[in-house]
Amino acid sequence: MLELTLDRLTKRYHNKIALDQVSTEFTQGVYGLLGANGAGKTTMLRLLCDILDPTEGEVLCNGTPIRRLGGEYRRLLGYLPQDFGYYPDFTALRYLRYIAALKALPPQTARDKVEECICLTGLKGEEKQKIRTYSGGMLRRLGVAQALLNDPRILIMDEPTSGLDPRERIRFRNIISSLSRDRIIILSTHIVSDVEYIADEILLLRAGQLIQKGTVTEVAEQVKGRVWECMVSPAEAEELGQKYAVANLKNLAGMVKVRIVSDEKPIPQAEEAEPALEDVYLYYFDQAGPQKRQTYGENPYERKENVDVSDRAL
Ligand SMILES: Nc1ncnc2c1ncn2[C@@H]1O[C@H](COP(=O)(O)OP(=O)(O)OP(=O)(O)O)[C@@H](O)[C@H]1O
């Protein structure tokens, strides 16, 4: 079985520490790397892909430093960067054949894999369209397809769901679930719901440090006793929003149901609620300040459909 080990992995850009002594292991499964902007997610993924050199520490694959494995390691790897390069005037088919050639796949294998990846990512029927005509979701699926051409045992994706509409998000999650057998899949995001349902383990990265790792339930347990719900008037809700990290607001018959993440009980009538992953996210990453938290949408108490709390909090 494949095992990736990060051993005190550190990356400094001049005097800025982007990744700070991160040690952890990955075995088969889906891992969701969650963190706010600038937390160090891209840096960690690029170190894992051997695109960046660590300042200290190392990445090991089955005990051997990936530096030493070189091409042997890269053959195990599929990578979808945040902005993957493509030629807009190529058709998807031509582009995938081109990438297959770059990955040095033998011609028959290339033809088979291109077809397989087109089908797997739901692009069948659209593969002869020029990429410039693709929607954001189709483009992301094409990105996944190119990362899969060499049948990688390790699949690394940087913010693969950014800019996708809810339908494409669900589609993406289903693709990842179908790929998860026999692979290490690591994907970064700042959108909690994108990893909540598919990740076997969640890693929380804050200011370059790994602050939590575990299943969704294990990570959510970390805020047990710190999640509160209460029904208050709109004015009280506004006041609470100024003071606390508010995870959820719902208008109910003139009153507002408020979900708050706080070490202390915010008001006497607040009741403890079962923690969820987005509460954890809010607990660790709510750096926006109350003003920003409260200015989402025209009515701050209206929970907009398909808008992630984590998006709102940042
Ligand atoms: N080439 C670079 N030179 C200097 N600083 C950098 C460089 N790349 C990243 N950084 C800094 O390192 C920190 C971590 O950046 P990184 O891109 O890894 O974070 P991230 O979690 O992926 O953020 P985002 O979600 O915005 O992509 C940030 O403070 C960033 O400004």
From TrEMBL:
InterPro entries: AAA+_ATPase, ABC_transporter-like_ATP-bd, ABC_transporter-like_CS, P-loop_NTPase. It comes from the Bacteria. GO terms for molecular function: ATP binding; ATP hydrolysis activity. Belongs to the ABC transporter superfamily. Residues 4-232 form the ABC transporter domain. CDD domains: ABC_drug_resistance_like. SUPFAM superfamilies: P-loop containing nucleoside triphosphate hydrolases (SSF52540). PROSITE patterns: ABC_TRANSPORTER_1, ABC_TRANSPORTER_2. This is ABC transporter ATP-binding protein. Residues 291-314 are annotated as: Disordered. Keywords: ATP-binding, Nucleotide-binding, Transport. Residues 300-314 have a biased composition (Basic and acidic residues). It comes from Diplocloster agilis. It holds the Pfam family ABC_tran. The keyword Glycoprotein does not apply.
